[in-house]
Fold this protein.
Amino acid sequence: MSQLTTPLRRNSGSRPRVVIVGGGFAGLHAGKGLGKLPVDVTLIDRRNHHTFQPLLYQVALAVLSPAEIAAPIRSVFRHQPNIQVLMDEVVGIDASAQTVSLGSGACVGYDYLVLAAGATHSYFGHNEWAPLAPGLKTIEDATEIRRRVLLAFELAERQKQEHGWHPPLNFVVIGGGPTGVELAGAICDISRFYMKHDFRHINPEKSQVMLLDGGPRLLAAYPEDLSAKAEKELADLGVEVHTGCHVTGIEPGRVQTGGPKGIGAVEAAVILWAAGVEASPLGKMLGAATDHRGCVVVDNQLNPPGLPTVFVTGDLSHFEQDGKQVPGVAQPAMQMGDYVAKVIRADISGSIRPGFRYFDKGDMATIGRMSAVANVKWPFKAHMSGWMAWATWLVVHIFFLIGFRNRIAVMSNWIWTYFAFARSARLITGDQNLPGWQEQVKAGPPQPTDAVAVGDSAGKSQAAD
Ligand SMILES: Cc1cc2nc3c(=O)[nH]c(=O)nc-3n(C[C@H](O)[C@H](O)[C@H](O)COP(=O)(O)OP(=O)(O)OC[C@H]3O[C@@H](n4cnc5c(N)ncnc54)[C@H](O)[C@@H]3O)c2cc1C
C-alpha cells in the first residue's frame, strides 16, 4: 500500500493533519474554515467538482447546463495553500490506526478526520429499480433524466408521424418531497410552456405528469398549509398528485401501485425516483452506532462516541437538537462544516470546544415556473407561496451558488428562460433507448381496458390524437 501526501504518523512538532472526505457543502465549508489555521488539510473527493444539488433539477429539465451548477474543488481552494485536493474514492477507514484507504490503493494518515461523504437515493431494497427509475443526486443523474424526458417527446413525435399513434406520454415521479415536487413541476413547465410550438405531430401539452407518494401529504417536512398550497399549485399546473399511493413494483415502462389509495398499474414513458435516501457506506466503517438510513449518530460536538478527533457532518450525520433530528439539507451541512473548523481552532489554541447548535433559517421548494412555497424562519417568520416565494428562492440560490461566474451565468439563463420562454440546455446526449418504450410500441395502441387508468386525462387522449 502506498502512502500519499502526508506521513502516516505525525512527527512531533509538525502541524496537525486534517483529512476531509467529501467536497459537498459540509466538506467545502470545513475546508474554507481551516484555510487560515496552522494545519495541513487533504480534501478527498471521488469527483473533481462540487455540485450545487439544489439546482440539479434545473439541469435535469434543461434550464441550466451542468457547468453552471458545479465548481472544480481544486479551484475553490486555489488561494489556500495549506489545502491539497485529491480526486480519489475513500474505500476504507481504520479509526484506531487513524488512516483512510483509497480506491487507488494509497493510504492517508490523519490527526482529525472530517467525514462529509453525504447520502444517496435508496430504493428500499429494490436496487433492480435503479436503471428503470433514475434518481437525482449527481450531474450524471441529471443529464440522464434530461436525456429520458427529452427523448420521450422525440420518440413520440417519430412514432406518431410514422404510425399515427404513440404510447402514452406519461411521466411518473415517485416521491413527494422537495425533489419530487420540483421535478414534477418542471416537467409540466417544459411540456406546457417551452416545447408547445416545437413539434408538428404531437402536442406536448397533452403529456401527463403524475406525482406518487406513499404518505398522506406532499412535502411532509413542511407545515400543512404549505403542503396543501404546493398540491394545489401542482394541480393548477396540470400535475396529477396521488398521495397514500405506494409503489409496489417497477418494470420497464410501467409502475405498479398499492396502498390505501393505490391506482393499480400505470404506464410510463419516463419514471423518476425521488423517494428515499441512504447514507454513504463510509459511516458504518467507523464502527459507531448508525440510524436506519446509515447516518452516524453524533454528540453535540459532531463526534461519534469515543472518537473525539472524528467529525461526521452533513447528510451523513444523525444529530438531534431539541429532541428532533436535524434534517439532511444544505444549511446544516454548511453550518456543521464551519463548526468543525472552529473546534479544531479551539483544540489548537487549547480552549474549550464549543457545542454545535443548528440555526434553522427555513426551507423552500419550487413548483414550476414562478411559483414556490417557503417556510421562512429567519430574519422573520412567514409561510410564503406563489411568485413571492419563488422570487425569494431565486435570490437565495444565487447567493449560495459557488463561483462568481456561475452566479452571472445562472442569472442570465434564468432571465432568458423565464422571460423569453426558451430553454438553452435542451440536449439529448447518450443512447436513444427508453426502457419499456419499444415494448409499448410493439403492444400497439392502448385499448380502453388497458392499465393506464390514472385520472381521466392519462395519456390516452394524447395517444389517440
Ligand atoms: C436533487 C436534490 C435537491 C436538493 N435540494 C435542496 C434544497 O433545495 N435545499 C436544501 O437545503 N437542500 C437540498 N438538497 C439537500 C442538500 O443538497 C444536501 O443536504 C447537501 O448537499 C448535503 O451536503 P453534504 O456535504 O453532507 O453531502 P454532499 O453535498 O452530498 O457531498 C458529498 C460529497 O462526498 C463525495 N463522496 C461520497 N462518497 C465518497 C467516497 N467514498 N470517497 C470520496 N468522496 C466521496 C461526493 O462525491 C460528494 O462530493 C437537495 C439534494 C438533492 C439531491
Q: What stands out?
A: The mean pLDDT is 93.
